[in-house]
Amino acid sequence: MDANPRTVTPLDKSFPEALVGRDIRHLDAALSDFSTPIFVLDADGLEHNIAAMAAWTARRGLELMPHGKTTMAPALWRRQLDAGATGITVATGWQAAVALEAGVGTVQLANMCVDPPLLRRLADLLARHPDQEVVVWADSEAAVDRLADALPAGARLGVLAELGAPGGRTGAREEDEVARIAERVAAAPGLVLRGAAGYEGALGHDRTPEALATVRAYCDRLVAALERVRPLVTGTPWVTAGGSAYFDVVADAFAGVADARTILRSGAYLVHDEGFYRGISPLDASRATGEEAPLRAAMHAYARVVSRPEPGLALLDAGKRDLPFDEGLPVVLGVSGTLGGPERPLRADVTALNDQHAFLRWDAEAAGEPPVEVGDVVRLGLSHPCTAFDKWRLVPIVDADGVVAEAVETFF
């Protein structure tokens, strides 16, 4: 994707006109030149988080194939791969094609893909680049049959048999069914059984003892499923799990697995957040211990005060089209008179989002003078990276001096 470098266009939201036509890898612009609302990445935070997760997995003898759907930004995937990630995980056939086109060597499609045109497209890409590999999931014999029927003659596709759990998402509910899936894969032309896979994140939403016990029990079942299918696997078996909430529990379960590739797929660690993952990640600053380097929130947004229609209320120029809101509303980090300028504390809360507005409220009686004026810029902490990047086609990376040296393109 680097053959024709991406340049800034007039249609890139919040980018200054002076940058139109510039290579996004070489911008050298001041953040203050951008418009609001704007979603930004912190250069130091990105570097820190990539190094922290690489060190964490290396100490435990784990591979990392981070979930690329979080950012859908090949430029960020490349940083993760350069730091030791052994592949990139995606969630759809189209995303897998993006990853192959970006030159990713190993692409794990952590989902069912039974769409014939997409499977044929993946097979064609792999035929043109035999050094690349795609490994998909299957949670039923019917899914295996669909995969085999859609592949053209001579194509080869890796498959992981998926174990699920009652109340979870996809995945065979019983280990016996996982074994039958593995047998079907091993017998199917063009399919190569790689091992077992699963996703534990849907089984808990906090770190209570009950949630951790549920996740731990599932991970133990996944390890047992690997042992059931191991005799049918071609090459070194894979066992993979690990979202961004319980990867410590997964690591503990995988610690006793011998002669296998034990693979985490955590992706949100790259930028962490000020909401959901701050409350649940084992590497948040409130939980990291010993030699573990805690993750930092490396994404935030800026929004400008456009109206102050009544006491205790201001409206900002960012809304659901610009900011994530499904796992918590943005939180106020500070306010300044200009974008990227010196900040002062702001005791206020974002209480709701419309399409293009955020409602900023404070205690008018306790505050005395209004804490913000029309034109002020509020810096916002965000929750849930997976629904932050998809609202922006081009995202600036800002250094500690407020300089935007580069931007990354997303493909959603």
Automatic annotation (TrEMBL):
<dbReference type="InterPro" id="IPR042208">
    <property type="entry name" value="D-ser_dehydrat-like_sf"/>
</dbReference>
<dbReference type="Pfam" id="PF14031">
    <property type="entry name" value="D-ser_dehydrat"/>
</dbReference>
<feature type="domain" description="D-serine dehydratase-like">
    <location>
        <begin position="298"/>
        <end position="399"/>
    </location>
</feature>
<dbReference type="InterPro" id="IPR026956">
    <property type="entry name" value="D-ser_dehydrat-like_dom"/>
</dbReference>
<protein>
    <submittedName>
        <fullName>Amino acid deaminase</fullName>
    </submittedName>
</protein>
<dbReference type="InterPro" id="IPR029066">
    <property type="entry name" value="PLP-binding_barrel"/>
</dbReference>
<dbReference type="InterPro" id="IPR051466">
    <property type="entry name" value="D-amino_acid_metab_enzyme"/>
</dbReference>
